[in-house]
C-alpha cells in the first residue's frame, strides 16, 4: 500500500485545465497594448503583482516596437532606396523587439509561470489579439491530499 | 483557392504596365536622351522601378491577416454570446463584431475579406488589380504604388508627347506609332489612377481607411483613429512594418510544467479563502444565514470558519460579477436616497415599491443557484447600497437574513388576495417591471416585520400587521406567475425554493420605477427578475453617455447567465451589443435603443409564458431557451442589413 502510494506520487503529471485570455486594451487606439486587469481565474494561481508586471513589460516592449521615430524613418527611407530589397537582408526593429519579447516570455514562463502551473503563449501566435495563459492542474496526485489545493483551484 | 478569373485583372495590369514601359524605353527614350535631356530617361527608369517594387510588395505582401482563433478561445456557446462587443477607443465607442469565420471579435478597424476569406488588420479594401487585400502591412506600398504610377504615367505621357510633336510629319513610322500607342494607354488610365491616388491622399490625411470611408462610419462623428494630418501621413509611411501573424512559429524550448505548483502567498495562508475581497467580508453573513436556517450550526459569535466551497467556480464568478456590478451600482447610489421616504409610507408593502430601480440590477443579475453562496454576496451588495443610500443597512441585512428562514413558512401560508393589486399593476406598462420589485420588496419587508429583530425596520413594519401580511404578499407572488399581463386570475403555484430565495434577495433594488404603482406581486417572477436584474446602465440605452463596454460582453453574460436570470434580462434590455451572434442581424446601437421598449415588453411577454418549472434550475442551459427565444424574436422584428 505504501509502495503504491509512493508510485502515485512519483507519477505526478499536469493536464490542461483552462485557458485565460487577456484581451487587448484599445483605449489608446490600435496600438498594441494588453489589459492589465487581473483575471479572476488566476486569483489562486499567481500573485497579482507578478502578473501585472509581466503584462506591463510586454506592453512596454510593444510600444517600443511600434514607436515611430528615428529608426523607423531610417528603415523606411532605406527600404525605398533599395527598392525594398533591404527587407531580405536585415532584420527590422520590430522583428528584433518581437524576438526580445519571445525571449522574455520564455524566461517568464520558466521562472514564474511554469512553477505555478501556468503557461503564457506569445501573442504573436494569436495575431496579437490576446495573451493566452494556459492553466494546468495537477492530475497525478489524486490519491493524496497534498495536491488537492491545486486540483480544486484549477477545477474549473 | 481563388478562382482563376481573379488573376485576370492583376495579370492585365502587370502586363500593361510592363509592356508599355518597356516599349517606351526602347522606342522613345533614345530620342529623348538625345534631344531633350540625358537625365530624363534615367528618372523615368527609376520611377518605373519604384512602381514595380511597390506593385510587387502590394501584390505579395501579407496585409496583416489574422490567424483563425483556436476553438478553446471561443468558450461561449455561439448562440448565447452577443454579436457585437463595444470598446472605447479614445473616448469613442467602437463596435467589435464577431467574425463567424475566424471565431473572434474583430479588433477595431479589422474587417473580413470575403474574397480572401480571412480577417485583415486595418482593412482598407481588396484590390483586384493586385489581387490582394490592402491592410495594415501593405497599405503604404499600395499608396506609394498609386502615387508613383501617377508620376510614371505623367512622365511617359509627356515624353511621348515631346517625341510625337517632333515627329508629326512621320507619324506612321514604327517608333512614332509605338509612342502613340504608349501615350494613349497611359493617357487612358491616367485619369482613374490619378483619381484613386487623390482619393487615397485624402484618406491618409484624414486617417481613414477605404472601408470606413465607403461605409460612412465616421461621417457624422469623430474618428478616434486619427492622429492629425501630419501624424497620419507619418504613420502610414514610416511606421514599422510588423512581421506577419501567420508565419511560422519561432523555435522555442519546450517548457516543463511539473506539479506540485506554487501557490500565491495570500492563498497559502487561507487556503479556502479566495483572493476576491468579497468573500472575506461575506463569511459572516454566510454564517449567520446558515445559522438561521440550520439550528445545528455553530454559534454566530465565533469567527466563522469558511464553509467548504461547494462550487468555487460559480462562487468566484458570481463574486467577480458582483464586484463589477457593485462598482457600477455605486455610481447610482445617489438615487438611493429615495428609499428614505419610502420607509415613512403607510403600509410596509408600499415601502419598497419605490426602491430605486437602479439599485436592482447589479445585485440581482448574479443570482447564484446556491442560496447560501448568493446570500452573502447579495447581503454585501445590499448593505453597500443601503449604506450609501442612507437607508438603514440593517434593513437589507434583516431582510436577507430572514429571507431563507421565512420563505418556507411564507409559502405555506398561502391565502388568496383580491385581484385589484394585480389589475393596478397590469394597468401600467411598466408595472410589470415593478411587480417583481414590489413583490420582492414587499415580501422582504413583510418578512422582516414578521420577526422584528432589527429596530430600524420596525417603524415601517409596525404599521403592517405581522404574520398575515406575509402570506398575502406571498400569494401575490404566486398569483402573478407567468401570465402577469393577463387580467385573468393567475394560478397559485407554490414556488420552488430557489425562486423564493431569489425573490427575496432581489427585493431591494427595486424600482425607482413607478412608485405609485400598486403592489402587484408579480407573475413576472420570471420576468421581472430579469428586467430588474439589469445593471442600471442597461436600463437606458438612450441614456448611455459613456457606455461601459462590458455590458454587452460575452464575459458578463457568461457570469450572469450562469445564474439563470441575468442573461435573459440582458438580452431583453441591453443594446445591440447583446444581440446573439449566430443568425441575427444586428442593428446599430442607436437603432436598437429606439426600439428597445417594445422589445422589452415583447420579450417579457414571451418570458412570462415560460413554465415555472424551467426557472428554478438556474443553470446556464435553462437560460438559453428564453434567450434563444428572445434572440429569435428580435431577429424577426427588426431585420436589418448587415453593415
From TrEMBL, chain A:
Gene Ontology, cellular component aspect: Golgi membrane; palmitoyltransferase complex
Bilayer topology term: Lipid-anchor
Keywords: Membrane
Superkingdom of the source species: Eukaryota
Name of a matching Pfam family: Erf4
Similarity comment: Belongs to the ERF4 family.
Protein name: Golgin subfamily A member 7/ERF4 domain-containing protein
UniProtKB/TrEMBL annotation, chain B:
Cellular localisation: Golgi apparatus membrane; Mitochondrion membrane
Broadest EC class assigned to this enzyme: transferase
Bilayer topology: Multi-pass membrane protein
Transmembrane keyword on record: yes
Annotated Low complexity bias: 567-588
Residue segments, region Disordered: 285-313, 472-553, 566-643
EC number of this enzyme: 2.3.1.225
Domain Palmitoyltransferase DHHC residue range list: 95-215
Residue spans of biased composition, Basic and acidic residues class: 504-515, 634-643
Main localisation: Golgi
Gene Ontology CC annotations of this record: Golgi membrane; mitochondrial membrane
Alphabetized PROSITE patterns for the sequence: DHHC
GO molecular function per UniProt: protein-cysteine S-palmitoyltransferase activity
Catalytically driven reaction(s): L-cysteinyl-[protein] + hexadecanoyl-CoA = S-hexadecanoyl-L-cysteinyl-[protein] + CoA
Bias (Polar residues): 594-625
InterPro entries (UniProt xref): Palmitoyltrfase_DHHC
One Pfam family, short name: DHHC
Similarity comment text for this entry: Belongs to the DHHC palmitoyltransferase family. ERF2/ZDHHC9 subfamily.
PANTHER family hit by this protein: ANKYRIN REPEAT AND LEM DOMAIN-CONTAINING PROTEIN 2 (PTHR12349), PALMITOYLTRANSFERASE ZDHHC8 (PTHR12349:SF1)
Domain notes: The DHHC domain is required for palmitoyltransferase activity.
Name used for this protein in its record: Palmitoyltransferase
Organism: Culter alburnus (Topmouth culter)
Phylogenetic classification of the source organism: Eukaryota, Metazoa, Chordata, Craniata, Vertebrata
